[in-house]
Amino acid sequence: MSLLGALSTTLSGLQVTQAQMQITSNNVTNVNTEGYSRKTADALTRTLAGQANGVQLSDIQRTVDDRLLRQLQDHIARLSGQKIQDGFLRESQILFGSLADNSSLSHNLTDFGSALEGLSTNPSSLANRSSTIESGRLLASQLNSMSTNLQQMRQDADRLIEDAVGTANTLLSDIHRLNKQIAVAFASTDTAPDLEDERDRLVNQLANEIDIQHFTRSSGEVVIMTGAGRTLLNTVPVTLTHSAAAMLSPSVSLGNGINGILIGTAGPDITSEITGGRVGGLIAARDRDMVNLQAQIDRLAEVLRDTVNKLHNDGTAFPPPQTLTGTRTVAATDSPSMTGLFRATVVDTNGVTVETLDINLATLAPNNIGQLVAQLNGMTNATASINASGKVTVSGTGANLITINELDSAVTTGNVTYGMGQFLGLNDFFDSGPDFTSYMSDRVASNTAAIGLAGTLSFDIAGATTNVAYVAGDSLTDIANAITAALGGSNIAASAVREADGYRLQIIDADNDNFTVTDSGTLTSQINLRAGTAGTAQRIAVRQAVLQNPGLLAHAESSGATPLAIGAIAVSSGDGSIARSLADAFTSNQTFTLAGGIPQRATTLTSYAAEILSVNAAQASALGAQISTGESFRIALENQIASLSAVNLDEELANIIVLQNAYAASARLTSVISEMLDILIEIS
Fold first, then answer.
1. Domain membership of residue 108 as a residue range
2. Can you spell out the DSSP letters for 276-324?
3. Is the full-model pTM beyond 0.85?
């Protein structure tokens, strides 16, 4: 080898060593830089015409394990979603209080029952009446507040989803920009390890927002998909869109007032496919956790309302009121399925019978509410009408007062049977509806699976009956479509509305006209179809007339004696029988159908309220345990990645010493060769 060849070889060593020192220096400088991975470049033998001719530097490589990085990103997405859910669940626990908390839902239910107990022992006490009404008002107000706060939490989650989707779009755009730069470097047979580090950091951030999967093309570009396989970034990034709803209510759900997360502005809705990241956690909180809580307190509010109103409508205050006004909106032509006897009694101020009328509901002709009102209006000492607001009013004439007794009256629609007084809401304690313009069912698991039941639903609309048959192979959606097809001319539409992890049947008259439903089979009982809409807990309230006049609080029962003679005592001041029945209702078991994950059971109102608290506290505790375990696993993964990829300062400093020695040796050899060349030049 000539001296010039030797000099060239030695200079290549200097250059490679210098480059390696630069790489090592960068490693040391970035020892604390987030997302920076240790870089290396090996010295390779350079050949010329098959002969060694110095050294050359290999491409700069990152020290990373792509499998571990993907595993960490998957875990980041799962853990991020769990933390979001945990935050919402813990916030919701504050609404319920603890079992030992004097302001908890269970405690307020107990207080209401205790107040009714006191009323039964001294029904003439104004203080007892006022205390009972105030306990009921506080209980209803707490249910209202809980529901309102749950809906506000859902709305907060919806707005955060909009923000997170925007963040994801920005990250996808930034990753796409880096993709292009990395592809240019790869195309020139170069590498771009620092750009790849930055891209990995952004991919980790994207995994924090939404669950993803990805792979890298030979061009160096990364292709990103959702966890379900929808492409988010290939040659260009997609744009995800979500517009938060202006306001959420218990009856609003995904696709029914809540906008989906779309690919583009009109692409497919991928909301249900997102299960991880902040977005996945927010979706779970908005569409499942808070919805389940709402369903649970709605069920409690429904059973509370119906239990109290059933007894309160069978009772009366003393002295009785001069006028009873219903809370339900009705029309004269409404023709529900009615059977049994219903009694109206006119009494004087001492509770002595002035006149009584027993109405056989099955023989009314025509068989409608208008005929019922006409018979009541035909009494000598009472008047009755449907007022301008559509409420039935019954009044004693002159100084006379009015009472009712449900006797064995039964008015059935859907899966609920009311006494006639309760159907009209003539003497309700709680007011929250329902009118009979809409119906809803409990939740079923699928809207497309066969229900497995057969029968006929009969819809009565202003005295006209329309039948809708259902067969064993029909799904909830099939039944909804059949109802809409049959009743569309009356502006009644049915749908299978998504709710949390299931679907419920919803039937609504767009004109707000009443209709009733009976069933030859067992569908209405199986799915608990009843009048109303979701959100009973948000609407329940003590009836305004009772709030304004504690003297209207029912505690006695109008006589059900047959016959009830004129001059007989119909109601007395010391009668606390209805107050006693109301108090007993708080210590006896009531039937609670499946709601929000709590299975059907017979238990007390107070116990059910405690179960809502305990079930959701257990859910929050279990999620907290998962997060604790997940954090430990995340730390272990990060440590494993760091042991491979992170810069070890001691190793780098030791490497610098090695490179220093190599550089010094090459420099010395260069100096010697240079001296030899000088001698040759002088000789020549």
1. 67-121+124-296+612-634
2. SHHHHHHHHIIIIIHHHHHHHHHHHHHHHHHHHHHHHHT-B-SSPPSEE
3. yes
